[in-house]
Amino acid sequence: DLKINTMEYVHILEEVLFPWMDEKFGLDNVVLIQDSAPCHGSKTTQTLLARKVPNFVKAQNWPSNNPDLNLLDYFLWASFKIGVDQLKASIIKNSKKIPASDVVAAARRFRARIEAVIEAKGGIE
């Protein structure tokens, strides 16, 4: 849900993406496709891309909101979700293995930790 404006996006393109793409592949060897985010379709962005990236697909030539044509949508986010689901299951499984006595012992040490933070005026020594 991150939203960036045109100027921020252009800055990212010029300072991060273009140098990286040029070093790794050469700008002539890259096809750059964007979705319909407002900062992607702005005149400033479109003009910059037309000038810097020869194989740039203009916003009006690409279907908006089409997950079938977006690698992030049809592959990457699903792959991340699988990984996150597996990680969540592993955390739940392993948290059930923590002995109750360890939790009780940690809770008993909590007051001393708080007192140390108060004594150090916010820092732990």
UniProtKB/TrEMBL annotation:
Among the GO molecular function terms of this UniProt record, one is: nucleic acid binding
> What InterPro entries does this protein map onto?
RNaseH_sf
Q: What is this protein called?
A: Tc1-like transposase DDE domain-containing protein
Identify the species of origin.
Caligus rogercresseyi (Sea louse)
